[in-house]
Amino acid sequence: MKIDRRELIKGGLAAAGAAVVARPGEAQAAAAAAYMLNRSPLRPDAFLRLPPGAVRPQGWLATQLDRQVNGLCGRFMEVSHFLQYDNTGWTRPNLGGWEEVTYWLRGYVDLGYVTGNPTVLSTASRWIDGVLGTQASDGFFGPTGLRTSLNGHADVWPHMPMLQALRAHAEYTGDSRIVPFLTRFFSYLNGQPTGVFRDGWGTWRWGDAIDVIYWLYNHTGDPFLLDLVRKIHSNSANWVDGLPNLHNVNIAQGFREPAQYGVLSGEARHRTASYDRYNDVQARFGQFPGGGFAGDENIRAGLVDPRQGFETCGIVEYMLSHELLNRITGDPVWADRVEDLAFNSLPAALDPLGRSIHYITSANSIDLDNAPKTLGQFQNGFAMQSYKSGIDEYRCCPHNYGMGWPYFVEEMWLATPDGGLCAAMYGPCTVTATVAGGVRVTITENTHYPFTDTITLSLAMTGPATFPLQLRIPAWCTAPELRINGATVPVSGGPRYASTTRTWANGDTVTLRLPMRPTVRTWPAQHNAVSVNHGPLTFSLRITENWVQTGGTAQWPQYDVHAGSSWNYGLVPGAAISVTTGVGNLADPFTPANAPIRLTTSGQRIDGWQADSQHVVTPLQDGPIATATPVEPVTLIPMGAARLRITAFPQTGGTRAWVPQGANYRLQNRHSGKVLGVDGMSGADSANVVQFDDNGTADHLWRIIDAGGGFVKLQNVNSSKVLAVENMSTANSARVQQYSDVGSADHRWQLIDSGNGWMRLRNGNSGKVLGVSGMSTANSAQAVQFDDTGTADHDWRLIPDGSIKIQNVHSGKMLAVENMSTANSARVQQYSDVGSADHRWVFLPDANGYFRIRNVNSGKVLGVSGMSTADSAQVVQFDDTGTADHLWRIRVNTGGSGSVRIQNANSGKVLAVHNASTADSANVEQYQDNGTPDHNWLIK
Ligand SMILES: [Zn+2]
User: Which residues does the UniProt record annotate as the domain Ricin B lectin (predicted)?
Assistant: First the structure.
C-alpha cells in the first residue's frame, strides 16, 4: 500500500493577499517541533501526539463526553464492585485485582483531561496516587498476587492499560513521578523470564506496552528500553507472519504490533504486516458496514453474516490501533477507519444516555433482548445484546469502552514533526497547540461533521507564524473544496493529507468542504447485499424501537429493545435516494428521533426473511431476491442512531427465491418420553444419536429440510450434521448417527403419519424405521433402525421449539387473532405476515401426542367455539382450561414439504380457512380432514 499520500499545496496564496509562502525547507528550519520526536534509533513517526486536553470537544461530540461523565464510565465506581477504591489490589497490593480497574482508569483519566470535569480530574488524580503507591522496591506495582498468577510467573497484561493511563497523566499534569516509576517497572519487566511475554492474554497485546516504552525512551534514552522492546517482539505472539489468534479483541489490539515494532526495526515488512493482518481479517470477516468484523467472541470460518456482532472492546481497541497507525504511518486510511467505527458502531454500543452497554453490536440486529441464544447464532451462550451495566456478565466492555471517545478527541488533531498541525479526524472541537517552534494557536473547528459537509477552521494566535496545516481528505471524497480566507485553493480527492504551508495570522479562516452524496456499496462476499453511505456515515433501516426497562434502576437501567415495525426489507436496485436534512438534533444526533440526516429510497418486503425462534435475524441469502411485494418508500437513518437496524440489505428485483428458515423441532419418543439428541453434544461425523431427557440443549433441536421425492433430511441445529445410519447399513439395530450432509441415501427419511398423533421416520436407504435400542427408556440409549414392527419406541412426535408462526399453505397468511384481541372467545383468523405478537404461538406438549397451542400475545389457547364438533365451527382462543377442544395434534403430510395438518382431539376435524379464502381476516374454522389445500399449514 502506498503510504505517503501527503502533498504540498501551493497556489491560491497570491489571491489571499498578504501571506508569504515559505518553501518546505525554510518552514522546517524555522519551526522546530514543540512536541516530542522519536529519539534515534527509533524512526520518526508521521505525526506527534498533542498532550491530552489540547483538543476540547464541542457540539455533538461534547454531548457524547458529557453523557460519559454522567454515565457508565464517569460513575461506574458507584456500582462496579471491581472499582472500590479501598478494596482493590491496584491501591492495596495485598488485595486482588485484574484488568477491570486498569481498563476503566485508562478511559476515565482521559475523560477528565478532554472534558476538564473537576470531579473526574480529582478522582482520577486520587486513583493515580493510589496506583503509584503500590510500587514495590523491584518496580512491580499493583496486586501482589499478579506476580505469580500466570504459570508461576507474573501476569502483566492488566498493567498495560494502566501504563497508558499513567502516560496520559504525565502528559496532562507534568507529574515528575511517572518517568522514574515507569523506568523502575520496565526494569523489573526486563528481568523477567520469557514466559512473561509468551503467556496469557498479554502475549497477544504487547503493542500496548511498546507504545509507552517508546514514550519513556524518548524521555530518557535508556538503552535497556529498546532491548525490552526486542525481547517483547521476539517472545510474544507473532503477528508478522499470520493471525496467531482468532479472538476479536486480541486481533483488534494485536494486529498493529508489527508496525509498532517497525519503528525500532526500520524494516518495511513489519509495517506491511499490520496492513496485511488488517486486510486478512476484513476481507474474510469484515464484509459488512460499520468498520468492525464478525467477532462475537472469536472469528469463525463461515460465520460472517452481518448479524454476527463485534464486541464493544473490539470497537474501541480497533479505534486505538487505527489511531496509532495513523500517527506512525501518516496514511489517512487509518483515520478514515477510526471515523467509520466512531460514527457508525460506537454510539449504538450504549443506550442513548450512556448508562448501559451491550457486549456485541451487529450491522443487522432486529431485537435486543436479555435471553441467551442457544441455536448456534453466536459463539457465546449468554445474552449479549440487551443494554445493562454488565458488571459481571461481560466485565471487560463496560470497564473498557471509556477510552473510545476521549482518545478520539485527543487524536483529532496531531502535531507534525516540522512544527505544524494536522486535522486527522473531524468533528466540532477546539485545539490549542504550539506551532512553528513556539507560537500558540487556538483553532476553532466549527462543524456538525459528519452530519454536515463543511468544516470551518478559525485561527486565533498571538502573532503570525509560518507552519504547515495538514487536512485529511477522506477516501470517499473525490472532489474536496478548500478555501483560505475565502480564496479557493486547489486540492485533490482522497485519501490524502493535503498540506498548506504559509504564514498564518490571527483571524485566518480555512473552509474545507467534503461534499457528501448517497452512495451504494455492493458486498459480493455477502450474497450481493448492499449498504448505503453518505460521506463517512453508513445508514440503516429506521425500525420503530420499543424500549422496555427490564431491570436495574433509574440511573442504571437495563433495557430490552424490540421492533415495533417491519424490518425485513430489501432495497430496490438503482432506486433514487433522497436526502433530508434540517431535522432531528445536531447536538444529540444518535437516536432515531434526533438523527439530523435521513435518506429515503425504495424497498420491498421479503416475506420469507424472518427472525428465528429466538428473535435473531436469519442470515442473508443470495440475491437479488425475487419479490412480488409492493415497492414502498423506506427511511434510512445513520447506523449509530439505530439500535435496531438492517444495514446490509438484500437487493430485490431478482430471480432467486428467499428460502425461509423453518422452525426447529424436538423429536420426542412415544415410549420413553425422551428426545433425540447427539451423544455428548458432539459436533463430529459419526457421533451417535441417542435419546435424552428434554433438558433444552441445542443438540436436541432439528430442522426439517426437504430432500425431494417425499423425503426430508433432519439437520441437527447444534452440529449442522444430518441424521444418518452407520456405514449406510441396511441391518436391523444398525446405529443411527449424525454425518455431514453428503447426500447419501441413508440421509433421507420419510415422515409417516401413524394416525395417532405420532409418526415414524423411515430411512430412505434401508426402509427401516427409527427406534431406540432394546426399547430402552434410559438416557443416552442408542437410536437404531429396525423393521417397522409397530412397537411404541418407533413412534415419535415433532415438538416445535419456541414461539413459531403457523402459515396457511394455500393463502400464505398467518394464523392470527382478530384485532389482536386478548379476550376469551376472540376469533382466530388468518392475516398477512406483519410480525405482530398475535401471530406467534407456542406448542405445549400434552398427553397422547397432543398439544395445547398458546397465543404469545393473549396467553390463551386455541380451541373451538362452544366445543362444537361441527364442520365450519369457528376456531377461537380461550383460557387454558383443559377442555378436550383445546388439544390438537400435528399430522405430517407426505411429500416432504414439511407441511402439516392440525387436528382437534374433541372433533377429529382439522384446522381450515373458511371457504378456503385467501383474504386477510378470513375466519379460521375446523373441517373434516378431506384434503383441501387450505388444510395444510407450515410451522415457521
Ligand atoms: Zn469486552
Answer: 663-799, 801-940
- The answer to whether residues 771 and 810 belong to one domain is no
Q: Which residue in the block uniquely carries the three cell numbers 509507552?
A: 212
What's the pLDDT at 303? 87
CATH number at residue 703: 2.80.10.50
Cβ contact 480:513 at 8 Å: yes
- What gap in Å lies between CA 915 and CA 922, rounded to an integer? 9
Q: What is the mean pLDDT of residues 508-528?
A: 97
For residue 399, how far is its CA from the centre of ligand 1 (angstroms)? 8
In a domain, residue 465? The reply is no
Q: Please name the amino acid found at residue 718.
A: N
Please tell me whether residues 794 and 885 are part of one structural domain.
Answer: no
Q: Average pLDDT for residues 173-199, to the nearest whole number? A: 97
DSSP conformation letters of 832-881: -----GGG-EEEEE-GGG-EEEEETTT--EEEEGGG--STTPBEEEE---
Question: pLDDT, tens digit, for every residue of 382-407?
Answer: 999 999 999 999 899 999 999 999 99
**pLDDT digits 0-9 by tens, 582-608:** 999 999 999 999 999 999 999 999 988
From the CA of 501, how far away is ligand 1's center (Å)? 43
Last residue of a domain, one of 800, 830, 857: 800
Domain boundary among 800, 820, 837: 800
pLDDT at 709: 79
For residue 830, is it within any domain? yes
Place of cell 470477516: 285
Please name which of 383, 352, 353 lies closest in space to residue 369, comparing C-alpha atoms.
Answer: 383
| 247: alpha, beta or left? (left if phi > 0; alpha if psi -120 to 50) | beta
428 Cβ contact list (under 8 Å, min separation 6): 57, 58, 59, 60, 61, 62, 445, 446, 447, 448, 449
Q: How far is CA 365 from CA 328, 368, 389, 591, in A?
A: 35, 7, 20, 15
Centre of ligand 1 from the C-alpha of residue 360, in Å: 8
228-231-232-237 Cα dihedral, nearest 10 degrees = 180
Residue 758 lies in a domain: yes
Tell me how far the alpha carbon of residue 314 lies from the centroid of ligand 1, in angstroms.
Answer: 7
C-alpha 401 – ligand 1 centre gap (Å) = 8
pLDDT tens-digit readout, 16-35? 332 333 333 333 433 456 89
Q: Which of 931, 896, 938 is nearest to 910 (CA)?
A: 931
Q: What is the domain extent for residue 822?
A: 803-939
Q: 658 falls in which pLDDT band (50, 70, 90)?
A: confident
Model confidence at 740: pLDDT above 90 = no
The average confidence (pLDDT) of the chain is: 93
* DSSP β-ladder status, 569-571 and 598-605: antiparallel
For ligand 1, the distance from its centroid to the CA atom of residue 394, given in whole angstroms, is 6
Tell me the CA–centroid distance for residue 102 and ligand 1, in Å. 13
**358 C-alpha to ligand 1 centroid (Å):** 9
Q: For residue 633, report the distance from its CA to the centre of ligand 1, in Å.
A: 38
Judged by average pLDDT, the poorest of 25-29, 183-187, 409-413, 428-432 is 25-29
**How far apart, in whole angstroms, are the C-alpha atoms of residue 474 and residue 290?**
16
